[in-house]
Amino acid sequence: GVLGVFGFGGPTSILTVLKKRGWSNKLSAGNKFEARGIELFDVDVDLTEKGVDHIDDIIKLIFQVILYLFK
Question: What pTM did the predictor assign?
Answer without folding.
Answer: 0.79
